[in-house]
Amino acid sequence: MHPQDDPYILGDEHGFWADTAADRILDRDPEEPIVIKGGISPSGVPHLGNMNEIVRGYFVAEVLRERGCDVKQVFTSDDRDPLRKLPRKLADLDGDIVDLGDVNAGALGQNLGAPYTAIPDPFGCCDSYGDHFSTLIAESAELLGIDVEMVSNTALYEDGDLEDVTAFLLENRDRAREVLSEYQEKVDEDYVPFRPICESCGHVTETDAVTAIDLDAGTVEYECADVEAGDRTIEGCGHEGTATLRDGKLPWRFEWPAQWRALGVDFEPFGKDHAEGSWPSGVDVARNVLGDEPPVPMVYEWFTLDGEPFSSSEGHVVLVQDVLRLLEPEAVRFFFSKDPQRARDFSIERLDQLVDEFDRMEAVYFGEVDTDEDERERAERVYPLLVDEIREERIRIPYTFAAVLGMTDDPALREEIARREGHVPEDAPRWAVDAALERVERAREWARRTDNEFNYDLKRTELPEHDFDADTEAALDDLADYIEAEEPAGEDLQGEIYETAKRHGVDIGSFFAAGYRLFFDEDQGPKLGPFLAKLDREFVLQRLRRNQ
Ligand SMILES: [Zn+2]
Ligand SMILES: [Zn+2]
């Protein structure tokens, strides 16, 4: 493969990857507007992993805009693809995952083999199943503040935008076969690079359905036969008919290069699956069949979700709509700003680590923490691309502390504690305080979702009813003194709780229970040492001493 077609050379060792991509695009002297594309087929659920197709391109688009270029970002929903099997899970427009059995799935079953845009929306809210999917993707981009033009592949066909290139491929079908046969075994003399939609049953036919081609009339004749879809067969109806070049679709291996031509694509990121398959064949088709220059490519690695691959069918997915209940949009963007070619995990369990990293980049950008040259340069380069507006007065409450505040319902009390603990400066503007406190609701949702140590109701306002013996009371006082003097870290404090109980001859189980009573008015709770270490100290001391 020609070095310029190698999608893997965008290492992040030197500078920001989006700058490297922009350099490669500008090296080709592209016409403006520079077009950046992404796209997927609307099967399953449009989840966070799919957003690579948009957010990766966003960074490149922004870098080009910084350099004064006119840039257009487009996203194709490859919605003329046929539905090949029933999805097990769907997502409603709120981004919540729904079982197939909970929607009007009948229409889906009857429409296997039909294009997504010809299938009724099982939720009944959009024009079609394909449109429902596109709506979710468009909304995901909007929620992340990314301006992207949604392009329906069906519309491209219906409007004739792919008609010329389809005619060209049919006219040069021998050449098309010759090139593609290097990549796909099924390409034989019956292969025609066009799949008409049967006017009788509505199915997208296969690449051997066309029986005659009349380019002067702009039509093909076809016979609707069975279509193999994985391990099953979608039956054809046997209809023999005539279709125009707008009433069908190109096979994907030709459709992708045809989209590049029709939309004038200069750059496209794609997942590893394409890197081995349709990218090399697409380059070959573009150059050696169509005579076009393929776009600058970029492969991204798939990321996992809490250690496992995303799986729409298993419901192991999360959508942007849902992630934004836990994270600020700028933190989501931050995740996608990382090197695309390194595998990584999106861990909801450890979302606090991601937020801490983001907060650190922000603090480095504003010169609030000491660091080395590399980290400073990175922050200066990337941070401005993450936020809508650079505002130095912005405040961040550390995510886990926000989770602690989330254990209290009263907004005024949350703010009071945040101020007392030094997370809100005295003279902070009101908007900054309000914005910072919004994180509390997100961290609270995170606690609820992961059922972690912050998923308890902390009894801040009133000392719970309790009845301890003298030894337990002495041990609690002792523990308070230790915390006041030592300011211990979580694990040290956990150890000291055991030691204190032992010293005073208090049963260890009862001593922990006393702690849970004082803080939660319950018999059990999270691992007490690490938890108390994360709470505001004054409150911990008061409570252990049973003063309030
Ligand atoms: Zn809908
Ligand atoms: Zn048919």
From TrEMBL:
Gene3D superfamilies tied to this protein: 1.10.10.350, 1.10.10.770, HUPs, Lysine tRNA ligase, stem contact fold domain
Q: Which GO terms describe its cellular component?
A: cytoplasm
Query: Membrane-spanning residues where?
Result: none
One biological process term in Gene Ontology: lysyl-tRNA aminoacylation
E.C. no: 6.1.1.6
Coarse class of the protein's main subcellular location: cytoplasm
The protein's superkingdom reads Archaea
- Record motif 'HIGH' region, residues: 42-50
Keyword list, A-Z: Aminoacyl-tRNA synthetase, ATP-binding, Cytoplasm, Ligase, Nucleotide-binding, Protein biosynthesis
Where in the cell? Cytoplasm
The motif 'KMSKS' region: which residues?
309-313
Q: Which residues form a coiled coil?
A: none
| InterPro entries in alphabetical order | aa-tRNA-synth_I_codon-bd_sub2, aa-tRNA-synth_I_CS, aa_tRNA-synth_I_cd-bd_sf, Lys-tRNA-ligase, Lys-tRNA-ligase_SC_fold, Rossmann-like_a/b/a_fold
Q: Name one Pfam family in it.
A: tRNA-synt_1f
What catalytic activity does the UniProt entry give for this protein?
tRNA(Lys) + L-lysine + ATP = L-lysyl-tRNA(Lys) + AMP + diphosphate
GO MF, one annotated term: lysine-tRNA ligase activity
The answer on whether this UniProt entry bears the keyword Cytoplasm reads yes
Give the main EC class: ligase
Q: Which PANTHER family match?
A: LYSINE--TRNA LIGASE (PTHR37940:SF1)
Family, similarity comment:
Belongs to the class-I aminoacyl-tRNA synthetase family.
What NCBIfam families does this protein's entry cite?
Answer: lysS_arch
Name of protein: Lysine--tRNA ligase
Organism (species): Halobacterium bonnevillei
Lineage of this protein's species? Answer: Archaea, Methanobacteriati, Methanobacteriota, Stenosarchaea group, Halobacteria
